[in-house]
Amino acid sequence: MTPSAKSVFYFGIYLTLVGLTLLFIPNLFLSLIGVENTSEIWIRLAGILLIALSVYYIVAVKHQLSIIFKVTAFIRCTIIIFFSVFVYLEMMEPVMLIFGAIDFAGGVWTYLAMKKEGIW
Questions:
Q1: How far apart, in whole angstroms, are the C-alpha atoms of residue 43 and residue 70?
Q2: Between vectors from CA 97 to CA 56 and to CA 8, what angle results, nearest 5°?
Q3: DSSP letter string, 15-79
Q4: Which of 35, 37, 52, 108 is the right S-S partner for 27, CB 3.0 to 4.6 Å?
C-alpha cells in the first residue's frame, strides 16, 4: 500500500469509528465533546453518513483511485475553515475544531504523500 493510500485508509477507519459511535452511542460521543445530549435522529443519521463515506475511502484505497485521494485531500483541508466560521458564528462548540484539525492534518498527510509519490 502506498503512503497516500495508507493515509486515506486510516482516515476511512477513523470515519468508521466516529460513525459507529454516532450511530450506536451518540450521547457518549456528545458528552465527550461537551455537547448537550440528544434523542433526535440527526446524530445517528450523521453516523450512517460517515460510515457510508468511509466505505468510499476504503474502496478507493483498494483500487488505488488517486483522483479520490486528491479530492479528499483538498476537501479535508477545507473543513477547518468551515468549522472555524461555525465556531465564530457560535453555531458550533469550539471543541469541534479538534475534528477540523484532524481532517486538516489528514488532508495534508495525503497531499504530501501524493506529492512525494509524484501523483499530485
A1: 28
A2: 25
A3: HHHHHHHHHH-HHHHHHHTT-----STHHHHHHHHHHHHHHHHHHHHHTT-HHHHHHHHHHHHHH
A4: 37
Q: Which residues fall within 8 angstroms of residue 89, CB to CB, at 6 or more apart?
A: none
- Judge residue 22's burial from the number of C-beta atoms within 10 Å of its C-beta, 0-12 exposed, 13-18 middle, 19 or more buried: buried
Q: Tell me the HSE value of 115 on the side-chain side, using a 13 A CA sphere.
A: 7
* Per-residue pLDDT reduced to its tens digit, 50-97: 999 999 999 999 999 999 999 999 999 999 999 999 999 999 989 999
- For the cut 90, the answer to whether the pLDDT of residue 33 exceeds it is no
pTM: 0.91
Mean pLDDT of 18-44: 93
What nine digits make up the cell of 49?
A: 453518513
Q: Do residues 87 and 97 make contact, with C-beta atoms less than 8 angstroms apart? A: yes
34 has a pLDDT exceeding 90: no
